[in-house]
Amino acid sequence: MKIxxxxxxxxxxxxxxxxxxLEIAKTTFKKFPDGEIYVRVENADExxxxxxxxxxxxxxxxxxxxxxxLKGRKIAVIPYxxxxxxxxxxxxxxxxxxxxxxxxLENLADHVITVNIHSRxxxxxxxxxxxxxxxxxxGEFYSSRQDLVMISPDVGSYDRVKSAASVAGCEFDYLxxxxxxxxxxxxxxxxxDVAGRDVVIVDDIISTGGTVVEAAKKLKELGARKVEAACxxxxxxxxxxxxxxxxxxxxxxxTDTVECVFSSISVSKLVSDxxxxxxx
Length: 280
Ligand code: R5P
Hints:
Helix 5 packs across helix 6. The longest helix is centred in the first third of the chain and has 13 residues. The chain folds into two domains: 145 residues, Rossmann fold, CATH 3.40.50; 122 residues, Rossmann fold (3-Layer(aba) Sandwich), CATH 3.40.50. Strand 13, helix 8 and strand 14 form a beta-alpha-beta unit. The protein is α/β, with parallel strands linked by helices and 280 residues long. The strands form three sheets. The chain has a seven-stranded mixed sheet with strand order 11-10-9-12-13-14-15. It has nine helices and 15 strands. It binds ribose-5-phosphate. The site of ribose-5-phosphate has 12 residues, from strand 12 and helix 7. Ribose-5-phosphate (R5P) binds next to strand 12 and helix 7.
C-alpha cells in the first residue's frame, strides 16, 4: 500500500505516510499550454491511498484523473471537501454540486475520508464517507489558555464550537441574531458577556473571511479584549487574510486540511487512525 500525494496536500501526505510507515508513490503533474491537466503515477501499489484537498477546480480534476489512473483498492483522503456548501438546491435548476461529486468519488474510490465536511446534508449524499472531526484538535491547541471564550459566528456552528471548547475547557457560545424591529437587528452572544475577555471565533471554514470579520466587529463593539480566529479549513479566498488583519484579528489558527502559513494543527494523526481502522 502506498500514499499518493496530490499537489494540494503534499505536507499532510508525507506526515500520514510517516505515521503509517508507508512509501510515497512518485507522481507527475503537468499543465498543457491550453490549460489541460496531466497526471501520472509511476510506481503505484496494488492498494493506494490518495491524499488531496479540493480547494480549486484544478485540485478536483487532478484528484479524479489520479484516482482513475490507479488500479486496485483505493482510499481517497480529501481533507478539505470543496463544493460541499452547495449541498442542496437553493434555487430551482441549480446543480447540487456535492451530490455530483459524491457520485464521482464513490465510483472511483472504495472509501472516502474527509474532515469536517460542511454539513450533514453534504455528508448525506455519500454512501461510504468517513467524516472526521478536527474540532477537538482545535480545543487541544487552546487547552493551556486561561479565561478564554470560544464563540461560533452563528447557530449553525454551535456543535462545532461546543466540541472544541469542551476539550479546551473553556466557556462557549454562539452569536445570535435577534430582530428588534423592522429596520434593526441585534447581534450578540446568546448567553455570555464578552466584555474584557479574550475571544476565539471558531468556524469550520474561513473562505472570504466575511463571516469572521462581521463577528469580530460585533465582539469588539461588545468590549472583547482580544479577538482571535480558529477554523478547520483555511480556504482564505479573495484577500481574506488582509480582511482579517484589517478587522484587528492578528492570530489565526487552522489545521492543515488546506495547507498554508496558518496550519498550526495537523490532522495527520486523526486521518492515519481512520485509515488504520479501515485497512490494518
Ligand atoms: C457557513 O455556513 C460556514 O460555516 C462558514 O461560516 C462560511 O463558509 C464562512 O465563509 P466566509 O469566510 O466566506 O464568510
